[in-house]
Design a protein that fits this description.
Largest sheet: 9 strands, mixed
CATH architecture: Alpha-Beta Complex
Strand content: 15-25%
Number of domains: 1
CATH superfamily: Ribonucleoside hydrolase-like
Protein name: Inosine-uridine preferring nucleoside hydrolase
Number of strands: 9
Radius of gyration: 18 Å
Organism: Micromonospora sediminimaris
GO molecular function: purine nucleosidase activity
Number of helices: 14
Bound molecules: ligand AGV, calcium ion
Keywords: Glycosidase, Hydrolase
Helix content: 25-40%
InterPro entries: Inosine/uridine_hydrolase_dom (IPR001910), IUNH (IPR023186), Ribo_hydro-like (IPR036452)
C-alpha cells in the first residue's frame, strides 16, 4: 500500500520585526510547512537588526537556505520609534550569538516587494502568504502584476479591529484603528479589493491572548533549549507594555501564525468589511454590507494556544 501524505503548505512570510513577529517566525520554523521566503518590512522595527535576527532565527532552525528579502517600501504612518528598537536588543541575545551567521548560498535577493513577485511566480500554487505587519509589499505586487492574484491561495493577516478599540494613539486619530492597517491603509484597501481568500486575525481575537506572566515563566523549565530560550526571552522583553502603553502586549502575530498548524484552536465568521482610508478613523476596518468577505477569527481556545506554543518551542 502506498502512503499518501498531504504535501506541506507552501508559505511566504512578510513580517515587520517586532518581538511578536520574531516569535512567529520561530514558531513557523517548527511547523510542517514549506517556507519559501521571508520578507522583512521596515515598519515596527529597524530594518538592519530585524534582517539580522531573521537570518539568525533561520540558522537556529537549520534553514539557512531560506531567502530573506529586505523591505524598502514603507507606509505613510511610521510606527513609534520606542517600539521599533526591539530587534536591536534581540540581535544581541546570547542564544542568537552562539555562532556567527551562516553564509547565505541561496543567491542574491531583490528588495522585498520585487522578490515577492519572484517568489509568487515560482511557487507551486496554492501559496499561503502570512503577513504580520503592514500589507505594503503585497499591495505593490498586486498593483503592478494583478495576475499574481491567481497564484495566491490564502492570505493570513494579523490586522484590524471590529468590535473592540483600536491600538493607534496618534494626534488627530480617534483610536479605532489597528497599527498594521493604519501604517498603510491604502495597501490594506488594495489587498482587500482582490478575490483572494483572506483569513483575518483582528484585535477582537488577539485581545484574548495577552502575554501572561505564567506563559512567559513556563519557558524557564526548559532552560538550555535554544528555541525555548529565545521564545522566553522575546516574551520577557514584552514586559513593561502595560506600564508604558496602558494595555498589554498580546500574542498578536503568533496567534495568526498558529492558525497554519492548529486551525482547530479558532472559531471563524464570514465578515463583510471595508478599510477607512482617510479622516479621524484612518486605517479602521469596519463591517459594511457592501464590503468584501473575510474569514475572521472570532474566538480562540486560550489555554490550548499557550500550550501549543510551549509544546512546539520546548
Ligand atoms: O497591532 C499589532 C501589531 C502586531 O503585528 N504590532 C505588534 C505586532 O507585531 C503593532 C503594535 C501594537 N502595539 C504595540 C505594537 C506595542 N505596544 N509594541 C510594539 N508593537
Ligand atoms: Ca508585526
Amino acid at each position: 500500500m502506498t502512503e499518501t501524505r498531504t504535501p506541506a503548505r507552501a508559505v511566504i512570510m512578510d513580517h515587520d520585526g517586532s518581538l511578536d513577529d520574531l516569535l512567529s517566525l520561530l514558531l513557523l520554523t517548527r511547523y510542517d510547512v514549506d517556507l519559501q521566503g521571508v520578507a522583512v518590512t521596515p515598519a515596527d522595527c529597524l530594518l538592519a537588526p530585524a534582517l539580522s535576527v531573521t537570518h539568525r532565527i533561520l540558522d537556529l532552525a537549520d534553514l539557512p537556505h531560506v531567502q530573506v528579502a529586505p523591505g524598502s517600501l514603507s507606509g505613510p504612518h511610521p510606527f513609534p520609534m520606542a517600539w521599533r528598537t526591539d530587534a536591536l536588543r534581540v540581535e544581541a541575545l546570547p542564544v542568537l550569538n552562539r555562532f556567527p551567521p551562516r553564509e547565505r548560498t541561496s543567491g542574491p535577493v531583490l528588495p522585498a516587494h520585487e522578490q515577492l513577485v519572484k517568489w509568487i511566480e515560482q511557487a507551486a500554487t496554492p501559496l499561503t502568504i502570512l503577513v504580520t505587519g503592514p500589507l505594503t509589499n503585497l499591495a505593490w505586487c498586486l498593483d503592478k502584476h494583478p495576475w499574481l492574484e491567481q497564484a495566491i491561495g490564502e492570505i493570513v493577516f494579523m490586522g484590524g479591529a471590529f468590535d473592540v478599540e483600536g491600538n493607534v494613539e496618534e494626534p488627530g486619530h480617534d483610536g479605532s484603528a489597528e497599527w498594521n492597517v493604519y501604517c498603510d491603509p491604502k495597501a490594506a484597501q488594495r489587498v482587500f479589493a482582490t478575490q483572494i481568500p483572506i483569513t483575518l486575525f483582528p484585535l477582537d481575537v488577539t485581545n484574548q491572548v495577552p502575554v501572561t506572566d505564567e506563559f512567559v515563566r513556563a519557558f524557564g523549565a526548559h532552560y538550555g533549549n535554544p528555541a525555548s530560550d529565545l521564545a522566553g526571552s522575546l516574551l520577557a522583553m514584552t514586559f513593561g507594555t502595560v506600564e508604558t502603553v496602558g494595555s498589554p502586549y498580546c500574542c498578536w502575530d503568533s496567534l495568526a501564525t498558529s492558525y497554519l498548524a492548529a486551525p482547530e484552536l479558532f472559531t471563524f465568521d464570514q465578515v463583510r468589511c471595508t478599510v477607512v482610508v482617510d479622516g479621524a478613523s484612518e486605517g479602521r476596518t469596519v463591517r459594511a454590507d457592501d464590503g468584501r468577505v473575510v474569514r475572521c477569527a472570532i474566538t480562540v481556545k486560550q489555554e490550548d494556544f499557550y500550550r501549543h506554543c510551549l509544546q512546539l518551542l520546548t
